[in-house]
Amino acid sequence: MKVGVFDSGVGGLTVAKALQHSGCFSELLYYGDTARVPYGNKDKNTVTRYALEAVEFFNGADVDCLVVACNTVSVTALEAMRQFSNKPVYGVVEPGVLALQQLNLDADKSRVLIIATRSTINSGVYQQHIADLGYAQIDAIATPLFVPIVEEALFSGPILEQTMRHYFSDLATPNVVLLGCTHFPLIAEQISNFWGGVKTIHSGEAMVSWLRENLELEPKFEQTPIRILASENVAAVKRTAEHWGLNLA
């Protein structure tokens, strides 16, 4: 199975990495709209227009399905993309919620923290899905400063520590943190350690699990090649991909 992966920039590379390392896919085609990133501070109509332009690109590409590796697009434009796509389109919200469900936590007693861009938080989509599972203690906060921190490769150190204290100091300790932005898995360990090792949910890992279950896939490829394209500065995206652990060989 050949999979297209779309993101507003480089954050979706964490999803592409999980797909590549799973061994379930024959080939990946990644497209990042780096010329217009970030999407998280744009209005719904703009995000939808950009997303449909990506659909037009992937409609002409040799892939079997499209993974939307961007939470902002997944909560804003997924249904519109499905209407105009000539192949199945999968977003990251449903897999993330399913991963939470599979933890089998006591929904009455457990606290869930959702961290994401402002657009994703303001949509309320994650909050509604999680409330539908019976969770009553849900905190949802926008943490946009984590995005440039990750893109500057500041995966540890005082800047990240101070930013976590800025966002988290007044919050009750969660039982699980849902990482509602694909940049955040790169600092998942530090976020977990802030509260002494709480569980985090990673969009890429959740997507692999969801695709394997729903498409009945098994690992059978020793190597999954990935082709990376971008609307601007593809060389920088490739450097980031290598730095984040993808195999471009």
Can you describe this structure?
Helix 10 links the parallel strand 7 and strand 8. It contains twelve helices and nine strands. The strands form two sheets. Strands 4-3-1-2-9 form a five-stranded parallel β-sheet, with helices on both faces. Strands 6-5-7-8 form a four-stranded parallel β-sheet, sandwiched between helices. By secondary structure, the protein is an alpha/beta fold.
Can you summarize the main beta sheet? 5 strands, parallel
CA-CA gap between termini: 19 Å
CA radius of gyration is 17 Å
Number of strands: 9
Note the total helix count.
Answer: 12
Instruction: Name the strands of the widest sheet in spatial order.
Output: 4-3-1-2-9
- Range of strand content: 15-25%
Topology order in helix (H) and strand (E) letters = EHEHEHHEHEHHEHHEHEHEH
Shape: globular
Low-confidence stretches: none
Helical fraction = 40-55%
Q: Averaging pLDDT over every residue, what do you get?
A: 95
Give the helix/strand class.
alpha/beta
SSE topology:
Blueprint: E1 2-7, H1 13-22, E2 27-32, H2 44-59, E3 65-68, H3 71-76, H4 78-84, E4 89-90, H5 93-102, E5 111-116, H6 118-123, H7 125-132, E6 137-142, H8 146-151, H9 158-168, E7 176-180, H10 188-194, E8 199-201, H11 203-215, E9 226-230, H12 234-243
Parallel strand pairs: 1-2, 1-3, 2-9, 3-4, 5-6, 5-7, 7-8
Helix pairs in contact: 1-11, 2-4, 5-7, 5-11
Key words describing this protein structure:
alpha/beta, 12 helices, five-stranded parallel sheet, four-stranded parallel sheet, single chain
